[in-house]
Amino acid sequence: MIWPRLKEAKQILTPYHLLNALLSVTFLCAKGIPQICPWIFVTEAGEECAIDSREREILMFLAVIIAWKGRKATNWLHYINNIFLFSKVANIALFLRADALVGIVFLLITVAITVIVPEPVYTGPEKVTYYQGAELFVGVLLFKNFF
Questions:
Q1: Which domain holds residue 70?
Q2: How many domains would you assign to the chain?
Q3: Contacts by 3-8, CB closer than 8 A, 24 or more apart
Q4: Pick from 15, 29, 30, 72: most CB atoms within 10 A?
Q5: Domain contains 136
Q6: What separation in angstroms does the CA of 75 have from each of 1, 2, 21, 122, 137?
């Protein structure tokens, strides 16, 4: 059914997720769009402003790390947060490598957004049963087929 999925998708439509998605693709947009690249990065005369081979290697390493960490993700929201985390770290390294001043500005923007717009707290149903003392053993005996 599509309705439960739309309800889940609303969890992503928060300022935290939208700003982190923007931060995660900033370097690719800055280096990949020819009209933006000369404004942000200083290039020598005749030098092309594009992603070089070392930056491509770092981005491939990022893809491997995301795929490796994605196997351990417990749900899709955790997977997306892993993508945001490692993409921002890679973007900081890539910006610092390309231009130190731009890298420091990006780092400050990333820290400011992380502090100002924290990750939203889970507000869904809580399906946890708490046991005290001997109730645990009774609960295990009653729900043997559940475990």
A1: 2-122
A2: 1
A3: 8/76
A4: 30
A5: no
A6: 19, 18, 18, 13, 30
